[in-house]
Design a protein that fits this description.
Helix 1 runs parallel beside helix 6 and helix 2 packs parallel to helix 5. The chain is globular, with a radius of gyration of 17 Å. It is α+β, with helices and mostly antiparallel strands. The protein has one domain: L-fuculose-1-phosphate Aldolase, CATH 3.40.225.10. The chain is built from seven helices and seven strands, in the order αββββαβαααββαα. A seven-stranded antiparallel beta sheet has the order 4-3-2-1-5-7-6, with helices on both faces.
């Protein structure tokens, strides 16, 4: 069942290790089959080196396990809330990559201060608000997803395909699991560059014209970066 998507999600999870974004059993990737309304996600607490494609867990959008003897990632409810709220995404990634997580633990959004950032994200990468004790105790993972959704109430989730969950870590998304991993790689490098930049200059900035130019040349209606298909 969903063997192709299981293979892709399995490989995407291993790519987190390959790109140095996770250690131990930290992090997870999921992918969704929109037609079937089913999500494939990494199993909970299984070491990456021991995972096989058939270990990937299938759940429905209510979190019910459809096809597996293994438990899905403990972060599954976060992924599901994002799929329900962001209709154009097909993959979600969560890591505890060092620099992006440092920004999350500091409770700070990553300001857009360079063209590398602007090539992939149209504005600052936001950090969610602090969760209340009631939210944490009620339904922690689901409420974490809701905190991300609230953060994007007035933001374009397709133009800023990443978020920092305060005190926790980064999530990214895209139209495919593979592209969501790609966004996680970029996010970690952007977080690292920003931290180093602030160490050199406590007040870095970037003018709006340059920011807009770099985003739109890759993502705007008249984008010209790359080759014609």
């Amino acid at each position: 069942m969903l063997s192709e998507l299981k293979n892709r999600v399995h490989k995407a999870n291993l790519d987190l290790v390959k790109n140095g974004l996770v250690i131990l059993t930290w992090g997870n990737v999921s992918g969704i089959d929109r037609e079937k309304g089913l999500v494939v996600i990494k199993p909970s607490g299984i070491a990456y080196e021991n995972m096989k494609p058939e270990d990937m867990v299938i759940v429905d959008l209510d979190g019910k396990v459809i096809d597996s003897k293994l438990k899905p990632s403990s972060d599954t409810a976060i992924h599901l809330e994002l799929y329900k709220a962001f209709p154009n995404i097909g993959g979600v990634v969560h890591t505890h990559s060092t620099y992006a997580t440092a920004w999350a633990q500091a409770g700070k959004s990553i300001p857009i201060i360079g063209t590398t950032h602007a090539d992939y994200f149209s504005h600052d990468i936001p950090c969610t608000s602090d969760m209340s004790s009631a939210e944490v105790e009620k339904d922690y993972e689901k409420e974490t997803g809701n905190s991300i959704i609230k953060t994007f109430k007035n933001l374009n989730y397709e133009h800023i395909p990443a978020v920092l969950v305060r005190n926790h870590g980064p999530f990214t998304w895209a139209r495919t699991p593979e592209d969501a991993v790609y966004n996680s790689v970029v996010l970690e490098e952007v977080a690292k560059m920003a931290q180093l930049s602030f160490a050199l200059n406590p007040n870095p900035d970037m003018n709006d014209s340059l920011m807009k130019k770099h985003f739109e040349r890759k993502h705007g209606k008249d984008a010209y970066y790359g080759q014609d298909e």
